[in-house]
Amino acid sequence: MQFPGKDRLVAALDAAVRLEDESAVTAALREALVALFADREVGLPRCVLEPVADHYARRELHASPTLGYSVIAMTWGPGQGTHVHDHDGAWCVEGGWRGRLAITQYEPCERDGERWRFEPVGTIEAGPGTAGSLIPPHEYHAIRNPGTDDIAVSLHVYQRPLLRCHVFVPEDHHAGNAGWTRREERQLATDDQAAA
């Protein structure tokens, strides 16, 4: 998908990913995203401003054939969000392009087979021009658009194309399962660029 400044974005991300050490890569990617968000010559495609009614939208902007990483723009309608989830063992750098997102990080505190219990370890409200990273095993988090009127758009750089993840769906607390979630594998897809 083409958009203004894509060559600049790809060059900056390529340079960061070539560092190879995941701590150095994610730090360089955070810096690169913050700089790119401030660059007036970089603009995302218009489709990323179009939410999808029943779920947050995922649109692939770039997949590196040589370095393996992928870039997904996510569009969050008012109130849209995720369950606690992982990134299937891949690092990720997430940056805010537009609007605000509440991001809560979790750590597992108990496990019984496919049942997991998590403890929240912090929530941040990320706005435009900010970036953070998740490196396994500290990859469990939930994201939501806390707004009631406006969309939010975030950019996600994944170590590799994220084709699946695990979501942790709360169990019925009336059955004595308060705080327990059930781990479910989810196949991930991207939304059609014009489907919104």
What's the mean pLDDT score? 93
Low-confidence runs: none
- Tell the overall outline: globular
Strand order of the largest sheet: 3-10-11-6-5-8
How is the biggest beta sheet arranged? Answer: 6 strands, antiparallel
CATH homologous superfamily (4th level) name: Jelly Rolls
| Total domains | 1
Strand residue percentage:
35-45%
Question: Can you write the helix and strand succession as a string?
Answer: HHEEEEEEEEEEE
> Care to count the β-strands?
11
Q: State the name of the first-level CATH class.
A: Mainly Beta
Question: What is the helix fraction of residues, given as a range?
Answer: 10-25%
CATH topology: Jelly Rolls
Rounded to an integer, what's the Rg over CA atoms?
Answer: 17 Å
Instruction: Give the end-to-end Cα distance, rounded to a whole number of Å.
Output: 16 Å
Number of helices: 2
